[in-house]
Amino acid sequence: MIEISQVFFVFISSLLLILSTVHGGSPLPSIQVDPDTQHFVDEFGRVRIFHGVNVVYKQPPFLPNLTDFDPQNSLTDIDLDNLYKWGFNVIRFYTSWMGVNPKSPNEFDEAHLSQLSIAVSMMENKGIYALLDCHQDVFSRFFCGEGLPDWAAKNLGNETLNRFPFPLPINFTREPDTGYPVLDDCLKHTFGQYYFTEGVVNGFKMLLVVECSY
Description:
Low-confidence stretches: 210-214
CATH superfamily of the largest domain: Glycosidases
Mean pLDDT: 88
Radius of gyration: 19 Å
């Protein structure tokens, strides 16, 4: 079995690399987290309070449109100018493992990473900090959510995937091409209850495996 926790670590590392590379030439002052108070502090030790918004795009390509303004689905210079003018200085920016590592544990989507880096640079150039949000909702699209790429979720085995939402007394129609529960069926129920299903619980156990040597 693929060691999913190790691949996830590589995914997180790639995001940190983007932040360190972009922020190296950032026009914004450096911000750190005080480990004692958990406050954001600037280079002078002053506590910084941010006003922000979410930018979340949960469908492929897992990024907003960065060039063509759209009131619903873009993050262009026009959007960023408006946000800054309205007093916002941070964006909680959705980052998807499905976008970074979509097909296999050894294959990274360089184009997606490049667009992600461009988005962070655009925000910083407009005076807005980027808080990369390594996001998931109930683990996987196989469980009415999103988060892990299909190749990672499939390590749970077809029996576990197909038994979802056991033990909830709910029946789902499944998409014939993907095996996903039909989204309309998923939305008929409160998605928070899916966290207590067998598949999601086992998924997080798989993800959080840590090998220790003594």
